[in-house]
Amino acid sequence: PSPKELEELELLNRALEKALNVRKSILKTPLETQGATGQKWAAGKISSKGMTSKQGRSHRTAAGASGREVCAAAEPQETPGLSESAPNEQQSFSGGDSAAGKNSMAAGKQLLHAVKKSSGFLAESSKKEDTTGAWGRSISPGTGTLQEKGCQLKLPLPYRKAYSRNSRAWERCRLCQTSADAAAARTHFMERIQTTVSFPSRHRVHLRCKIEEELRGLQDVPSRLRQYVEAEPADPSTLQGEYESLLTLEGLQTTVSQCLQKLQLLREDCTGDVGSCSPACVPVRGQMCDSADMLAVPLLCYSSLQELRDLFALKLQVSMLHQEIALQKVMMAELLPVLEARPLLEGSAGLFRAIQSQLCEGGRRFPVLVRDELLD
Amino acid sequence: QVRFVKWALWYHGYGRPQLQRLPADGSAGSRELLLAFSWLLHSPGLLEQLLARNRVQTGDETSVCTCEDELPNSQEGTSEAGPEDRVDVRYLQWLNGRLRLQWCSLHAQHQEQCKLLHKIHLFTSGSHTDQNLGHFSVTETDLIRQPENYKQLLQLLESETTQLEAFLEWKQLEPVYWQWMETVLDNMAEEGNMCESQDVHVEKRRLPEVTSCCPWADKMTEQMDRLSRDLVALQEQLHQLVAQRKAAWWEKVATREELQKERFSATARKIRESIELKLGGVTSLCAPKKNKRHGLCRLVLRSKHPAGKMSLGRCVSKEAAEAVSAAEVITELRVREASLQRELQQLRQQCRHRLDRIAGGLEGVICISP
Description:
The structure holds two protein chains of two kinds.
Chain A: H1 3-35, H2 53-58, H3 65-73, H4 80-89, E1 99-100, H5 104-138, H6 146-149, H7 157-175, H8 180-196, H9 199-202, H10 208-218, H11 221-231, H12 239-270, H13 291-294, E2 299-302, H14 305-341, H15 349-361, E3 368-371
Helix pairs in contact in A: 1-5, 5-14, 10-12, 11-12, 14-15
Chain B: H1 2-11, H2 17-20, H3 30-42, H4 46-53, E1 61-63, H5 75-80, E2 87-88, H6 89-123, H7 138-145, H8 151-206, H9 215-255, H10 261-286, E3 296-301, H11 318-322, E4 324-325, H12 326-360, E5 365-368
Antiparallel strand pairs in B: 1-3
């Protein structure tokens, strides 16, 4: 690997170590404070990284049932994938020629980038941990726990003032309407602009961002429809059930053809007149909603810890899948030609196995290659 | 840069060709740019979007949309590797393993973070002066403990308030602006009347612009192709199922002589209505989506039961109704996940086929897939 990659590997190593350190310290503290009574680390103290065992013991107070429960819960879960990734690194190879072509550099680069991005994520989340960790560190005994006093806390006055002024300003902006004559003048202006657009394209919807937005909306339709299809019973017993099933399926069929029609329209819109195309045309992701709504406070409400955890887990899962798909495409483009191009030598069995496992099993499982020898 | 601006405007639907014809070095066309700018003020709501995007974050923010993060252009990598460079496939495997490790660590960290967030939100409920929020965020809690660290945050809040007030002023002056823009258009119309007839001919020649050089269009086409394949496969499956069901139905009907027309048509109608209801949600899938946010949202803990420590009864403002619920987002994410899984499996299946073919060419070796 080139020096640049070594450098990147170094970065990766460091990020990994940092993440592992966090985990180690989390692992350490419950073990050490468990002996002491009153697990202050847990009850009300929001600390993860910062808490050393010494402080844990000095904040001893009467243990709440909540304390022990949170302590136990705070042990990081055994992440499932960890055990699986280990065998990967220890694979041995039978074949002699286990070097892939130069093209796999690109795949390697993609992986590195994905890894760097993940370490970026880690940096952000560990920054958060820093703040919450520091909270535990500097609370002196006697101040009371967050759990007890949390609902009585008050934000400092300057902040409160600034905050309320700010939110009132947002509200006023949101409710503020465009005056009638401004709206009239504006509409007139927009119409005049529109008339200067050349004739054939005037009546077509040219909003490429809209095309993209609509396409994105359609992307999940097959999945959802499949859910409905699978929910239908295979063999309904009653007459009514049969009729219901039939109607449902017909309805779904109509929906699918509607979607296909819509897709066709979008396709036509897309291949319409093309304006100047910049090679770096990264779409500028604007919002498609109403201007006034843009100024509303964006809130995401959750109702329980489990919901929050599911939310984060799913977000990560979706992001991972996006990355995996991108990686898969790159690997397909780079690795398959390696195998397909040359006549396979005797020793490339190992290479084949490795590539097969990467492309088809996500690197988790390996095919078995058996020598085809006829016993005479 | 000039090309990017032209592209971005075209992307957002600004159809005025005079802009596209401006020279690429940016030496002329300030009036056209002014028109374009005015157009942007209204059409995608430029000011509102800027304000929303740069909103000062005082809460625990997370994003709600399921859009793909842009990964770097893969074309850059292949040209760099020289002919002598060979990469061991084990390096790839190792990188892959480390990537998985990172993902797992990230997951663990996220879960930790969730627990801590939940605790802070729970324990500080009832303290926030803003009834909509009800509790503090991590930043605000830390602010209480160490106000000196957050001077910058205060400044940011105050400058944002000034910006918002400026926005309100602008709203009052708006009529003047649009009237001015009309005069600009008038001026241009006067001057440009001579040149217009020529422009039409130029345009006609320009129309067959190559679509193939546009990576955006390629990306869109690729997505559309995939979607179309998916839908067509589903259509065929449904076709078969419907045929089956119909056959089964007519069988059942034929053997049931007691199927009184009147009695059944009443139940049939009821069934039709209930199915329409059930599928109502499905047909709305194809209709334009409701407005999805792309930016960050503030996480707020709200218990489902209004009777509780949190005085939710008071905050019956409109804001409360506009918040996105985590349950909705979770459902959408699950659907997205299912789609992506299917896509990944399809790609893997393709690989399997191709590799099976290659395996056939391996001399004297049989390949047994896991």
